[in-house]
Give the backbone structure.
Amino acid sequence: MAVLNGGELATLARADWIVLVGYLLAIVAFGLWMGRGNRRVDDFFLAGREMRWWAAGLSVMATQVSAITFVGTTGQAYTKGMSFLAFYFGLPFAMVVLSLTLVPFFYRSGVFTAYQYLERRFDSRTRTLTSVLFLLSRGLGVGVALYAPSLVLSVVLGWSETTTILLMGGTTIAYVAYGGNRSVIWTDVVQMALIWFGILLCVGVAISRLPEGFVLRDALALAQTTGRLETVDLSLDLTRPYTVWSGLIAGMFLAMGYFGCDQSQVQRYLSGRSLTESRLSLLLNAFLKVPMQFLILLTGVLVFVFFHFHAPPLLWNRAELARVERAAPAAELARIRGEFDAAHHERRQAAEAFASARHRGGNVARARDGYLEAGKRVEAVETEARRLAETVTGEPYNDTNYIFPTYIVSQLAGGLAGLVIAVIFAAAMSSLSGEFNSLATASLVDFYRRFVRTEASDAHYLAASRLFTAGWGAFACFVALETGRLGSAIEVVNKFGSYFYGSILGVFGLAVLTPWATARGAFYGLLTGMTAVFLVSQFTGIAFLWYNVVGAVSVFLVGLLITAVAPGDRPAGVR
Amino acid sequence: MKSLPDRHGEDGPVPLFGTWRAIYTAVVVSALVVMALVALFSRWPY
């Protein structure tokens, strides 16, 4: 359980390997077993529409929680605190709105995809455009979603990227291509249970590892002193990313766009055995999502306090640290290391003095000031180390995502490291599985069945569905393997989705809220909304969460305007 | 491949909280309570 230096590889103990390999084998076997007996396409895509609300609801949650959410959120709490929680404040209200509006429309119309509904309400080109946008963004995004945790785990565990990508991608493809949505949902249930267990375990371990005489209250006081417990920012500044208002209003629009219009989510709750079950599956998220994110962020804050009393590495990304050790001037690196060790030691003493002053009635204000000063010195040396890394590598350096995995493999023992690595795998696989399945559904239902084979047997479409699933899985692995060479293109892919989530939400809003809106209004409203979001993102400093509001409102207003100016076209039928 | 049948029938009793009005109220109240608790957690004088 030593602290790792650059070039030093973490090794999992035998117990960790047993837990990790056991998880992978068990989840694939379980997925295959639960997915047996698919005879028809609606079995494969909608699990025969027989899922209970709690199973579909946990699957909705699991699809949203990706591995990078898990490791990235803890890292963010470590470096910046818990302000990110505001991002989720609007989600419960969005679940209520969706449950009252879109879910009944989708469920009662018997569609496989959300976009299929748009053809019934508007026209085929609106369906095609929205489905293409989904396939483009999800298809590329799922590759990045696979690459990001694979990269982190490969660095932390010392495995090759190819190994981690193929392990995560391959195992997921195996059971999703065979078992379809039924396998996705039941494995998601198990994975979600494992993720919750892992979160509670991490919180418990972080608390239990606080030094003797240093209680949880002291840890929270330290974190509060640095501003890391701050979650309620009432600022009205639109450029600030996580305020109460951006979380409540823009976050609600984002959640409505994602849960209401993204096929990877819609398909989960359309599997409910009744409309009631589908609605309840979404409402389960309304109850659990914010507490879950709170616990994940709290874990990151506790890890931050933990590393006051245990030496952290100079840089969290050990591969980059090894590069720095090879290429940086030895004297400069030695100086930074010396300053880092001294600053860290000083901060530890200041933290202990702060706790001591609190317990014994000393001068708490002075001890707090001393601690804050010591903390600033640590941050200054860390900044210097990061600058050195950027100078040596010639690339921007950000190691936020490496903090939590490093903590796991360097501090947990007795199979717990293997268990938490399995939780990260579970988080990755649960989102990948839903996305492979939904990409295959949109490909088959929105394109193959309309433009390639309009009439074929269920057996044919079932075989094609499996091929589409495997194909999208292979494509995701390919994108993930190539992503390392794409560099800044990753960012473009990640931002791509935020350009049109709100706009697509606007189209669905037109569909269900304004019975008189025309297909022309919806189609050109959608194009206008995406253009508006692009312009706002390029020429203003408005925080990205607000793009969803801009897109949705633009589409809605322009759609109504076009409807008023050029009325006349009526909704077409749906295949 | 057959299209799925439309399901226009009512969807059965609500298994939790009894009525939809009650469950939506519960969601909204719990969301507000959670936000209040989170704010309290942030500002609590530890």
In short: The CA atoms of residues 277 and 296 of chain A lie 28 Å apart.
